[in-house]
Inverse folding.
């Protein structure tokens, strides 16, 4: 079997080196990473809300004033992107478990990625007035 230089170079890398990932591995890795980001966000959300509840109404209002600044609106947009991808990729995985679309996994991953991206762009357009106050 004749190997091209690219295949030889690729075989020299470790199997889990990101340049060797195919679409399925990227889908797997991104799903796990977005899941971890959501767990981290949930823990931080609970801590922030509970700390504001201790301080009373004025502390909660002050916290909301901080969280409505453009920086936190942009951070919320990142959260929207993470939630969209994780949810749509989760639906893709459920369909695979049911036997739907197993032969077209690569195409469905890119459909999920595109749908997530379009949903993110829509949320950016809606949030622009909040960012550029």
């Amino acid at each position: 079997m004749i190997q091209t230089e690219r295949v030889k170079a690729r075989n020299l890398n470790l199997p889990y080196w990101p340049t060797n990932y195919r679409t399925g591995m990227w889908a797997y890795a991104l799903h796990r990473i977005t899941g971890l980001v959501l767990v981290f966000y949930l823990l931080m959300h609970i801590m922030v809300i509970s700390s504001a509840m201790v301080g009373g109404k004025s502390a909660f209002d002050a916290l909301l004033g901080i969280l409505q600044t453009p920086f936190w609106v942009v951070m919320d947009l990142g959260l929207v992107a993470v939630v969209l991808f994780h949810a749509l990729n989760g639906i893709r995985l459920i369909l695979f478990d049911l036997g739907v679309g197993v032969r077209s996994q690569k195409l469905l991953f890119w459909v999920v990625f595109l749908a997530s991206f379009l949903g993110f762009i829509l949320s950016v357009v809606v949030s622009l007035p909040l960012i550029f106050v």
